[in-house]
Amino acid sequence: MFILKGIEQLEKAIAKAKKLRPRVEFDRFGRYSVSGSKGYYKVICRKDERGYKTVACTCKGAEKGLVCYHSAAALSLHIGLARRQQQTA
Ligand SMILES: [Zn+2]
User: 1 C-alpha vs ligand 1 centroid, how far in Å?
Assistant: First the structure.
């Protein structure tokens, strides 16, 4: 799991996601399934009680606190959805 502070943090992971083009499946708002080398990983994007945006993925890299491309792929969808939600609220 990592705390999302800015988009710069995601640059490398986004570049990798663009290259590998994983499938991102919408589960519900904040929960996504992303295809990886060994099947699907769950990515959870949420705000914690202190207001930090946290991203958790079930892959090995994310367990070590790395920003994985699954997270980046899910976040690009999540950010778009969050924007749309704010507009309708
Ligand atoms: Zn991952």
Answer: 9
